[in-house]
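#structure-requests
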Amino acid sequence: MADKIRLSDVEDSFRSVQRSANGSLNALRPAFPGFVGVAAGVLVLVAFVVGYRRGRNKTSVIEITRL
């Protein structure tokens, strides 16, 4: 029969998972501002293009002629 799971076994397992997660997070931390900047730029560009196209579709052209 298998050994019983002790609290220390569970704690060790959680600590190892936490260490590996912190290591990968620390590796991504320097690149994070770059990702956020690129994502913000893409979002602004998409909003501009959508607004521009919507404005072109809803804008009326009025011609004024002199008699």
